[in-house]
Amino acid sequence: MPEEVFETVCGVCHFGCPVRVTVRDGEVARVEPSRLGSGYLCAKGLAGRAYLYREDRVKTPLRRLGKRGEGRFEPVTWAEAYREIAAKILEVKAMYGADGVAFFTGYSKWYRPLLHRLAHSFGTLNYGTESSSCHTASVMANLVSGGVYVRPDTENAELLLSWGENPFYSTNYAGDRIGRLKEKGLLVISVDPRLTPWAKRYADIHLRPRPGTDGALAHCFANRLIEAGAVDKEFIEKYVHGYRRYAEYARGFTPERAAGVTGIPAAEIERAARLLTEHSGSLAVGISQAGLTHHVNGFQNYRAAAALAAITGNYDREGGVIPVEYSGRLADRNFPRLRVDEFIAETRPDKARPKIGSERFPLWAELVDEFQAMDLPRQVLTAAPYPLRALVGFGVNARMFPGDGKFFAALEALDFFLDTEIFMTDTARYADIILPACTSYERSELVGVMGGPIRYSSPVIAPLYDSRSDADIICQLAAALEVEDAVLRAGYDACARQLLSKVGLTLEDLRLDSSPRRVPGKEPYIVGSTLRNGFATPTGKYELYSETVAQYAGSHGLDPLPTYVEPPESPDGEYPLTLTVGGRLPNAFHSRFHQVVWARSLRPNPALDINPADAGERGIEQDDAIAVATPWGEITVRANVTLLAPAGGVFFYQGYSEADGNGILDADGLDPYSGFPAFRSAKCQVRKVGQVREVERARKRERVRRAERSKEAAPVREAVPVGKAAPAREAAPVGKAERSKEAASGREAVPVGKGEVAV
């Protein structure tokens, strides 16, 4: 069979980059960047073939044997699986009502409108997503301040204040754009604890605050701008609500106070403030979608940083920040004339109970049409305010939760857990039924990327094994549960047609040409429209004092001003370091690539980034086995001694089964405004636990013992063994990586671990 070449999209993350796929003899032979896109693919996209053919693909529907988490399953047919799912779910509904069932999805995003509608059709508002700990808090902060999401207009700015951004590890093609703008004179201040490739290459000033203290720095900048008369008084008078109260609050944040809080020398803060003052008329503020909000005080920190654009008059103006139709995929619901909101709301139940997290996080409940998933384990385990007994899951990843042992405990406590998955994950091992899903290379999808063009991608190969599209599974579940929803039960194409009914393009149009199609009549945002038409806030202005937040000041202690509070897990004598879990790596996305050998080879072992000064104090050298301890637990990992990490701060990536960083965080350490977890500001201690070879010998002895025990405990029934998935605490360090050498130029080198991308 000759080679065939297809244009499709990479479904690994929410950007949906166009890719060119070569298929030979019915198998994907090569994945490359497409000329229909940026011409770039990240390391994860380039690993698409290895991702597709991972050895741990779920190949057929599976039914649990033995205890949850034990990892024993037997194959069943799709018909058997649907019958059992329907029987269990409807039994829970009969006993506890529709709200006793929660519908939850991790990645991906593309099918979310369908799952959201299924929850409504079933009779509950309990639909949730991984966005409970992703970018939604930043969206909330934008909504309570200006009523709309904004982006920096770097093309026209003199100065970019870049807060926690590192596009080389996420939107990799954005770096080149900033490089071109730098050549034209763009100045950049980067605020980031880590020495990222972005900060190293482009920052004129790089400030490295202690994680979780960004709000104090932002208030200091505001104070200096106000003192220097570099704010736009006319803009403030006309468009800003609560300025006087905010200015009075910010007055207390001198450079000296900010230095004491953030750890940045006062002279460096002053230098950055002077640059802000000099270019306050053309200031673009770019803020990481999640970095600032992954703290107990994160929502307020984000508001404080965003306020700088408002007080300098750079909101909805060229060279400042501009309202944007934010959307990662169709799931985010704000494509022009796409009927996603209507599609979801059409079957919305009238008498459902408040969604999960409504009492604990009322601001989230008001602003977000999803339950706050960080509160799901608590409600399962306490049955308050009402029992939750079943979970309908798609791509559920327990390890994305802080203190995730609590989530595993909740899974054990459920009456029924369905997980739809591509791979046999740690979480899937707790399911009663597992349904096998496809990757983006094996299914059709209505794709809309970043509020722009729309396309209908077709599969480049047939579904592997007995897997099916998530969208098809949702529609088939609707039929099995006998919900009164003719559109869902008619299948994915019927749903796609309804979503497109006001767009001016038909499904047949999109099938004829798979290239991205512009929405007919779609016009770009006209800068200044929000200023002319009024802000979508209670006062019709940009709210430094949020009237929306003020509703919960008395009942929940929420502050309408973007006030700063110290992170509750600040370093102390016993735990003198600050641990950040979850910062990006170029070869990883959540835990999806930990089992992809090609991607994992770029950083083979779970490793903690630690500054040479902190390592030296503890006698730690590159690749040593080290223990990372918090008040909530301990893991053993490798040491990566690097200047990427600041003194006093250590960084670790999440999602490893063998070294679960989220598992040693406080499960209840959540932002009272957004419900977001404190992934990036936990106090910790690090110590050396032995030479690598000694640890290897101990691990080998343990593997031998486990193998001997497993021979004695062979299962009675024939099963599909997939291993045990109890939350692990220790990594297995192997080998010794070569150390980095100092640069010949005489500048201090940045030590990197084996295979790590140097900056």
Task: Give the helix/strand layout.
Layout: E1 4-9, E2 18-24, E3 27-33, H1 43-46, H2 48-52, E4 62-65, E5 72-75, H3 78-96, E6 101-105, H4 112-122, E7 127-129, H5 136-146, E8 150-152, E9 159-163, H6 174-183, E10 187-191, H7 197-202, E11 205-207, H8 214-227, H9 233-239, E12 240-241, H10 243-250, H11 255-262, H12 266-278, E13 283-287, H13 298-311, E14 321-323, H14 340-345, H15 362-367, H16 376-382, E15 390-394, H17 405-413, E16 416-421, E17 433-436, E18 445-448, E19 454-457, H18 470-480, H19 486-490, H20 492-499, H21 507-512, H22 529-533, E20 542-543, H23 547-550, H24 553-556, E21 577-581, H25 597-600, E22 607-610, H26 612-617, E23 625-630, E24 633-641, E25 649-652, E26 682-690, H27 692-712, E27 720-721
Parallel strand pairs: 6-7, 6-15, 9-10, 9-13, 10-11, 12-20, 15-16, 16-17, 21-25, 22-24
Antiparallel strand pairs: 1-2, 2-3, 4-5, 4-17, 5-27, 8-14, 18-19, 21-26, 22-25, 23-24, 23-26
Helix pairs in contact: 4-18, 5-13, 8-11, 8-12, 8-13, 11-12, 16-17
